[in-house]
Amino acid sequence: MRVYLDDERETPSNYVRVYWPDEAIALLKTGDVTEISLDHDLGNDERGTGYDVLLWIERAVYTENFVPPLIYVHSANSSARLKMQAAIENINIKASSERGSI
Predict the structure, then answer these.
(1) Tens-place pLDDT, residues 51-93
(2) For residues 24, 31, 71 and 92, what is the CA-based torsion angle, rounded to 10 degrees?
(3) Domain that holds residue 70
(4) What is the number of alpha carbons within 13 Å of residue 75 lying toward its C-beta?
(5) How many domains does the chain fold into?
(6) H helices then E strands: how many in the chain?
(7) Where are the alpha helices (DSSP H) in the chain?
(8) The dihedral formed by the CA atoms of 12, 25, 51 and 67, expressed in degrees to the nearest 10
(9) Is 68 part of any domain?
(10) What is the pTM of this model?
């Protein structure tokens, strides 16, 4: 399953659209997500941002040996994009080291 987290943009074909981090995390928990594309700003920071999804993935990789999907960022928020890319790099490094140690 390919997941697209965004509040405004048109959903690309072959993606499942979600609007909030908790919806994306619920799908990630199923283990069926192969790709996820994240926007940062979702219109209500109290409900969360795309970065919150990355924090969940990172925590799951470190504490539950979660295998992350391919992760993309499509946010126009340049500073948030940099923060999100750094989180993705960390997730990928940890996930790669876990796969290498098995």
Answers:
(1) 999 999 999 999 999 999 999 999 999 999 999 999 999 999 9
(2) 130
(3) 2-76
(4) 22
(5) 1
(6) 3, 4
(7) 21-29, 50-64, 78-100
(8) -90
(9) yes
(10) 0.93
